[in-house]
Design goal:
The chain is an alpha+beta fold. The protein is built from 15 helices and 20 strands. The strands form three sheets. An eight-stranded mixed beta sheet has the order 11-10-14-8-7-16-19-18, with no helix packed on it. A hairpin with a 2-residue loop joins strand 18 and strand 19 (621-628). The longest helix is centred in the N-terminal third of the chain and has 52 residues, at 19-70. The radius of gyration is 32 Å and the shape is globular.
């Protein structure tokens, strides 16, 4: 508008000016027009001549960073060096002296300068990344003979610091670009560059923090001791399952050693022992003191939050063994099977053939109960497998970070392998790494279901669970109403398999007779931030217990399911969610068969929605069905 106004004024001045003025005006306008045409043409030519190099450099940079993330140092270095050369060539073309006239033309100048800045910053970043990849050889980080080279770990620190600093500089330089005059293609390039940098920053920060913490976690200055809990979801607990065995692991100067292995019953308190003098969160005591969750290793995992469990088990272990620990790890059958991929197959006395990464999980979850039953031999087999696997880690040659991540990444993501340490500064790192087992925080809406075995058997091998969560939310008022329908199906037979698998060793209530074999008696909890407006089981209103736990409401009841039947538990909920967008976090529980979740979100007045997560937008609704094998997040926005 300003330029049009100026042009109108200039033309008006020419019309009313003298002949001499008009001649000067025409001369000045001609020169200005020539400068604009020539300068703009030269700038366009610079952009065209740089385009191939810039696009090639961007492709190589992306592939180099991908190779670095996967641990392929050689490919990363080659691609990053190629990206640096290509981007440097593109930068020279954009900043060539013959292209400089375009740098003084309003509108053209801002776009050419912005492109030059983007390419120059990314070229510098590629150079730092290449030098970092050259110095930081990830292949040196693999364990050899059960020992990690801590000097090699420390050498990773400086190049990661350099790369993080370069990313920060690039991020600031791109943020300072004024995009008011940018044409859409240039603005798109700027947005892409900023998104790539923003995506890379957390990964590099995580790697740097890990390198800084690793020496202490691996016993660089003084030995570190860890308590390992071997669990099984066939006797469900909210976090990791029933704890059957434990191991004590000592790491000194990067060398792994298992110093003790045993059954958790060895850690039971003596009959009539006083209450343990340990620090236990108030909400945990309110919920689980009645079942000795604060003193019995068999029930401590009733909380869905592994950092809470780690804190309690570490204190109990120190009291009963005399050994303080620096951290706690949980390993279930899926994680143990993954470890076998690193240590090799194990031949166990009493088991035909060998146990491998392919068959160990099924054996631990199913076959051991059907073939060995409730016998001392079955327990010995479990102990032998776990003990042998961890013994082999003492002398194992483990692969580098890339292959290690490919093997252990899935079991970490699905909660089968969890680790929490008490080393200063490690808590945030482990949370970001996704291995801490921390229950998801409540940011907006939240729903999580847990079932805990209340029968003293392994009957949860046959439990199938589904969650149908339906939400209606009005952004204008914040009013929210939700219905959570939990379906529990018991596929256990009434007979024909060992009682240890489908029996009921515990009474339903004090004084009652035990339930017949095949019945699944479970302690069901729904975690939510909202008010309870009523709960029904198969359509009949029932009473529940309600407590505050982990910053949300825990709505609980016992449910008994006959063999081959289903129970449907429905929770009506309401509350106020004042936010510009709807965010739902779902907490997952490791189970033999993953929970099947269905989510439906209806936003009042939201005829056009954008969504993130495992859902799709359909008109004013967001819907999705998926297996809840890991914590998930759903985000719904009105356009």
């Amino acid at each position: 508008v300003a330029m049009l106004g100026f042009a109108w004024l200039a033309w008006s001045a020419r019309r009313h000016g003298s002949r001499r003025f008009r001649r000067r005006f025409d001369w000045a306008a001609g020169v200005t027009g020539a400068v604009v045409v020539v300068g703009g043409g030269l700038a366009a030519l610079a952009v065209v001549s740089a385009r191939a190099d810039v696009e090639r450099g961007a492709e190589l940079l992306e592939s180099g960073l991908a190779a670095a993330r996967s641990g392929d140092s050689d490919a990363a270095l080659a691609d990053l060096r190629g990206a640096q050369r290509a981007l440097s060539s593109g930068e020279r073309a954009l900043g060539a002296p013959w292209a400089k006239p375009g740098w003084v033309i309003p509108g053209v100048s801002q776009n050419v300068r912005a492109l030059h800045t983007i390419v120059a910053e990314v070229e510098g970043l590629a150079g730092v990344a290449a030098r970092s990849a050259e110095v930081a050889d990830l292949d040196q980080l693999q364990a050899s003979g059960g020992r990690v080279d801590l000097a090699a770990v420390r050498r990773m620190g400086a190049p990661l610091d350099d790369l993080l600093a370069a990313l920060g500089r690039t991020d600031r330089a791109l943020a300072e670009l004024d995009d008011e005059w940018m044409v859409p293609p240039v603005r798109d390039r700027l947005d892409d560059a900023q998104a790539e940098v923003a995506d890379a920053l957390p990964s590099i920060e995580l790697a740097r923090d890990g390198v800084a913490l690793a020496p202490e976690l691996l016993g660089a200055e003084e030995p570190a001791t860890y308590l390992v809990l071997f669990t099984t979801p066939t006797e469900a607990r909210a976090t990791t399952g029933f704890i059957g065995n434990f191991a004590e692991v000592r790491i000194a100067e990067g060398r792994f050693e298992m110093t003790r292995f045993g059954r958790t019953r060895e850690l039971d308190p003596p009959e009539g022992a006083p209450e343990p003098e340990i620090e236990v969160p108030e909400d945990f005591m309110a919920r689980y003191a009645g079942v000795d969750g604060h003193r019995d290793f068999r029930n401590v995992t009733m909380s869905p939050d592994f950092p809470t469990i780690a804190g309690i088990t570490a204190q109990l272990y120190e009291q009963r063994s005399g050994t303080p620990v620096d951290g706690v790890m949980s390993v279930n059958p899926a994680a143990l099977a993954a470890l076998l991929e690193l240590t090799g197959p194990v031949a166990v006395p009493g088991v035909e053939g060998v146990l491998t990464a392919e068959n160990a999980e099924r054996f631990l979850l199913v076959d051991q109960y059907l073939t060995l039953g409730d016998s001392p031999g079955r327990v010995d087999v479990l102990e032998s497998l776990a003990e042998t696997t961890f013994n082999r880690l003492e002398t194992a040659d483990l692969p580098g970070p890339r292959e290690l991540g490919e093997v252990l990444g899935p079991v970490v993501e699905e909660g089968d392998l969890q680790l929490f340490t008490f080393t200063e500064g490690s808590e945030s790192f482990l949370d970001r790494l996704g291995i801490s087992g921390r229950y998801p925080a409540v940011e907006g809406d939240f729903v999580g279901v847990t079932t805990t075995n209340a029968a003293g058997s392994k009957i949860d091998l046959f439990l199938r669970r589904a969650l149908d969560y339906r939400v209606r939310w009005d952004p204008s008022t914040g009013q929210l109403r939700a219905t959570a329908v939990v379906t529990l199906t018991n596929e256990a037979p009434a007979s024909g398999v060992p009682d240890y698998l489908i029996g009921n060793a515990r009474d339903v209530l004090p004084g009652q007779e035990p339930m017949p074999p095949g019945w699944n008696h479970t302690f069901l909890t729904l975690y939510t931030p909202w008010n309870d407006d009523g709960v029904t089981v198969d359509g009949e209103r029932v009473g529940i217990s309600a407590h505050d736990e982990l910053g949300r409401r825990a709505l609980s009841l016992y449910v008994s399911i006959p063999p081959g039947e289903t129970r449907t538990v429905e929770f009506e909920l309401s509350g106020v969610l004042g936010a510009e967008r709807y965010v739902l976090d779902l907490g997952a529980q490791p189970m033999v068969e993953p929970e099947q979740a269905t989510v439906s979100v209806r936003v009042a007045g939201g005829a056009d929605l954008s969504v993130e997560g495992p859902v799709e937008a359909t008109g004013g609704d967001a819907r999705g069905s998926f297996a809840l094998v890991r914590d998930e997040e759903v985000v719904v926005r009105t356009r």
